[in-house]
Amino acid sequence: MPAEKKKKPEVLLFTDGACSGNPGPGGWAYILRHPETGRETSAQGSEADTTNNRMELTAAVQGLQQLKRPTCVELVTDSVYVGTGLSDWLPKWKKQGWKRKERGRFVAVKNEDLWRELDRLAASHSVIFQHVAGHSGHPENERCDEMAVAAYQPLLPGSKK
């Protein structure tokens, strides 16, 4: 029997989140690219009082929401939180009623609303997770970081809105 071919991604989704303080004003950004055509879209947004993890999750959710049909997506992020959450933690949390173990007892999953939405979106796609080191010169990761930071800048004290 021939070895199974690794599915080639139809779409590349680059994401990043950023926060000034944790919690504090935060921003998210994504770049969605169709490698075959070179077509690219991007977006960014912000929240006045959030955490870096929420912004990382929001970027992935916002990007996946743009897909109109089941797609093989390569999710490229510097967030170990998003990647490990999707591949390792999420299945356990679902089995445990969206709870995680902490010091021998079950507690609510942090950012459950976003994890539930990411789970719902990922279920209709084939998502391949690729981790890149943040601030290491990866062009799309650097661009997403710049967009995310720019998104929350107007929310900083003393900024001209």
Describe this protein's structure.
By secondary structure, the chain is α/β, with parallel strands linked by helices. The protein has a domain at 11-80 and 125-155: Nucleotidyltransferase, domain 5, CATH 3.30.420. It contains 4 helices and 7 strands, in the order βββαβαββαβα. The strands form 2 sheets. The chain has a 5-stranded mixed β-sheet. The chain has a two-stranded antiparallel sheet with strand order 5-6. Helix 1 packs parallel to helix 3 (112-123). The longest helix has 16 residues, at 80-95. The protein is globular and about 45 Å long. The model has no long low-confidence stretch (mean pLDDT 92).
Keywords for this structure?
161 residues; alpha/beta; 4 helices
